[in-house]
Design goal:
The protein is about 25% helix and about 40% strand. The N and C termini lie far apart (about 40 Å). It has three helices and eight strands.
Length: about 150
C-alpha cells in the first residue's frame, strides 16, 4: 500500500525544489504495475533533460525511503498545456482560464464541468460554466481538474 499523496509530496518536494523546479503535483495510480507521476515546472519551461535530472534524484530518495510497496513506474513530466490543477493556489493562479473539473460524486447528476475559473470564494473553487451558471465546488469534492488549452 502506498503512503498518501501528502506523504509522497513531503518526500519529493524538497528534492524538486532543491534542483530549482516547482513541484506542481503528484499522481499515484496503484495497480499491479503502479505509476507515480510527478509534475514539475520551471520559469524557462521543462525539457527532457530537466525530467531526467529530477528523475535521477527523486528515484534515489524513493529507493532509500521505500514509500510504495511493490513495483511502480516513476514518471517525471512537465504539466503541459492541459496543466493539472492540484492546490487551492492553482485555482487562483489560473483564474480567467478555461478548465475541466471532474468531481468525486455527482452534483445535479453530473461529475464533469467545464468553464472559466473565477478563483476561490469561501473555500470553494468558483467556475463560470459555458451556460453562464456560476458554480462552487469544495476542494474535497474535486477528483481532478485540468486547464483547457486555448489554441
Amino acid at each position: 500500500m502506498a503512503r498518501t499523496t501528502t506523504e509522497l509530496h513531503k518526500l519529493i518536494e524538497p528534492v524538486v525544489e532543491g534542483l530549482g523546479y516547482e513541484l506542481v503535483g503528484i499522481e499515484y495510480t496503484g495497480s499491479q504495475q503502479g505509476v507515480l507521476r510527478v509534475y514539475i515546472d520551471h520559469d524557462q519551461g521543462v525539457g527532457v533533460g530537466d525530467c531526467q535530472k529530477v528523475s535521477y534524484q527523486v528515484s534515489g530518495v524513493l529507493d532509500v525511503e521505500d514509500p510504495i510497496v511493490g513495483q511502480y513506474a516513476l514518471e517525471i513530466s512537465s504539466p503541459g498545456l492541459d496543466r493539472p490543477l492540484f492546490k487551492a493556489a492553482d485555482f487562483e493562479r489560473f483564474c480567467g482560464q478555461q478548465a475541466v473539473i471532474h468531481l468525486l460524486a455527482p452534483v445535479d447528476g453530473r461529475r464533469k464541468y467545464k468553464g472559466t475559473l473565477q478563483g476561490l470564494e469561501d473555500n470553494q473553487v468558483v467556475l463560470l460554466t459555458e451556460t453562464g451558471e456560476e458554480l462552487g465546488f469544495l476542494l474535497e469534492q474535486i477528483d481532478r481538474a485540468r486547464l483547457v488549452p486555448d489554441f
